[in-house]
């Protein structure tokens, strides 16, 4: 989809006066000087692929041959998949990044842990493990409905067919397998307000009058795409109005590259510098700020080195980088005049168990769904499998079918490379759906409502995190950990198209 003329909340955009977010391809990466310890001839592995229809799946297999000295690919043999003749087990050469050791069996503690709506899980189906999200917990038969984003399908599973989703990163499982009882207890008690600090605008304005006098050193953030959540050092030049200040950046320059950049900033985008924490040792899982390209960018510690350096993962750009202790600080939020440490990511309010109409297990995430014959010319919405656009839907119309699994669509708003003609594109049939049923929201959206936000000509899946004045809302996008402001008319209640019907998913529990 390289020809699409659109930008995503997930991707940093070029800025006229600021450098990019930490998504620098020239950044040195750790050199792999040895193979992962689990890679040995005959060793059992789980194998992933980028093939359409199989993304998000882990097939069982074993290692046949190890990579040569000038390659990072090895030969594997699948446990259940057969070759084209259907007689022998399939052997394939894959990159080591597509391999991981088998996830150990669940501990007794984890077997007793409740699976709730919103949990990321892996479901055992067609001899492989498929990544999905729990959408329903059924009281009647104790089964769980799991939604697979790659195929836009929902299937029911027993408890023994599910396991909690984990990532294999830096030779360890994330989250770790050896969670303590204390950690699990804390998880139940933590407040769900872990992403967006609940800031009172009137309190912030009152505090600003006292704290942000001319010459005061501050930090300033922006709503500009690609820079949400980053803080730049500055000083206050003067107060322009009740809500606006003229600030001068410490490290950012005007177009001439000489004079310090000056611009107006909203009072809600200004805060004092956070207190120093030089003696803190960072641990895996800590949320930190890393100083990069003249600003402080929020990230997560994913590895801790013996030399004191740490590996940082930036969710917005999906970039992994290493930093020394210098230039890092523990992330803090400025909330109503006080500094607060963030709560743990991923801890949300437990879902209420409900009983709903059964959803028949009649689809396979391993294969593309059967073609749903929309009439030629029918208005549809199209999703993308391109990285950075997974949670978006774009308006289009169906032009023609191409074979059993493909169709041609023409987008309403997206343009071809000439910038004039509507973009036409061949997509898989499981990427299209009818336009959702219109649901007029007379009453305001509520906090934690799951919504679609109209942004850059597409509808993006998000969650209402704060209700503002004048029918406006702050919406959080989980893929990028971004929060953007939208008016009521730019939002619609989120619905999923599953098994030929619309399922309303109005709350994130």
Task: Explain what you see.
The protein is mostly beta strands and 509 residues long. Among the domains are: 1-36 and 201-328, no CATH class; 44-100, no CATH class; 379-434, no CATH class; 450-504, Roll (SH3 type barrels), CATH 2.30.30. Helix content is 5%, strand content 41%. It has 3 helices and 36 strands. It has helices spanning 108-112, 181-189, 201-211; strands at 44-47, 57-65, 73-82, 89-95, 99-100, 120-125, 128-137, 144-148, 153-157, 162-164, 167-169, 172-174, 217-220, 232-239, 244-253, 260-266, 270-271, 287-292, 295-304, 310-314, 319-323, 328-330, 333-335, 338-340, 379-383, 392-402, 406-415, 422-428, 432-434, 450-455, 458-467, 472-477, 482-487, 491-493, 495-498, 501-504. Strands 1, 2, 3, 4, 5, 6, 7, 8, 9 and 10 form a 10-stranded antiparallel β-sheet that branches. Strands 25, 26, 27, 28, 29, 30, 31, 32, 33 and 34 form a 10-stranded antiparallel β-sheet that branches. A hairpin with a 2-residue loop joins strand 6 (120-125) and strand 7 (128-137). It is globular. The chain starts with 43 loop residues before the first strand and ends in a 5-residue tail after the last strand. 27% of the residues are buried. Residues 37-107, 113-170, 210-278, 280-336, 372-440, 443-499 form the Agenet domain. This is Agenet domain-containing protein.
């Amino acid at each position: 989809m390289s020809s699409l003329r659109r930008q995503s909340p997930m991707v940093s955009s070029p800025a006229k006066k600021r450098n990019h977010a930490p998504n620098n391809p020239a950044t040195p990466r750790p050199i792999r000087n040895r193979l992962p310890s689990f890679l040995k001839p005959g060793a059992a592995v789980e194998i992933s692929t980028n093939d359409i229809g199989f993304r998000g799946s882990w097939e069982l297999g074993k290692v046949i041959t190890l990579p040569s000295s000038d390659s990072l690919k090895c030969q594997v043999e699948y446990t259940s998949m057969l070759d084209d003749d259907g007689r022998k087990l399939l052997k394939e050469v894959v990159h080591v990044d597509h391999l991981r050791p088998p996830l150990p069996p669940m501990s007794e503690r984890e077997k007793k842990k409740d699976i709730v709506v919103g949990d990321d899980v892996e479901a055992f189906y067609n001899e492989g493990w498929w990544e999905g999200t729990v959408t329903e917990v059924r009281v009647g038969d104790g089964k769980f409905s799991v939604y697979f984003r790659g195929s836009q399908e929902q299937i029911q599973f027993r408890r023994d067919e599910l396991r909690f989703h984990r990532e294999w990163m830096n030779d360890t499982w994330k989250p770790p397998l050896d969670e303590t009882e204390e950690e699990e207890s804390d998880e139940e008690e933590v407040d769900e307000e872990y992403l967006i600090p609940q800031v009172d605008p009137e309190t912030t304005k009152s505090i600003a009058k006292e704290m942000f006098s001319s010459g005061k050193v501050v930090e300033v953030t922006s709503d500009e795409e690609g820079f949400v959540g980053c803080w730049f050092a500055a000083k206050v030049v003067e107060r322009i109005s009740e809500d606006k200040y003229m600030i001068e950046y410490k490290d950012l320059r005007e177009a001439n590259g000489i004079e310090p950049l000056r611009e107006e900033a909203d009072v809600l985008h200004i805060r004092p510098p956070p207190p120093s924490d030089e003696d803190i040792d960072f641990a895996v899982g800590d949320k930190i700020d890393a100083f990069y390209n003249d600003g402080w960018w929020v990230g997560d510690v994913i590895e801790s080195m013996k030399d004191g350096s740490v590996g940082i993962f930036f969710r917005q750009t999906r970039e992994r980088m290493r930093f020394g202790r210098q230039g890092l600080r523990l992330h803090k939020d400025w909330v109503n005049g006080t500094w607060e440490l963030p709560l743990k990511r991923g801890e949300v309010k437990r879902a209420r168990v409900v009983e709903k109409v059964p959803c028949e297990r009649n689809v396979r995430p391993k294969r593309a769904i059967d073609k749903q014959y929309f009439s030629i010319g029918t208005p549809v919405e199209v999703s993308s499998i391109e990285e950075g656009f997974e949670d978006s839907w774009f308006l289009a119309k169906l032009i023609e079918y191409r074979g059993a699994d493909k169709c041609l669509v023409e987008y309403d708003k997206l343009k071809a490379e000439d910038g004039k003609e509507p973009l036409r594109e061949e997509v898989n049939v499981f990427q299209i759906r009818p336009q959702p049923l219109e649901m007029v929201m007379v009453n305001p959206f509520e906090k934690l409502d799951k919504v679609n936000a109209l942004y850059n000509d597409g509808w993006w899946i998000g969650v209402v995190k704060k209700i503002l004045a004048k029918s406006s809302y702050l919406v959080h996008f989980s893929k990028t950990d971004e929060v953007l402001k939208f008016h009521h008319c730019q939002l619609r209640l989120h619905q999923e198209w599953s098994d030929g019907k619309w399922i309303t998913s109005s709350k994130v529990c």
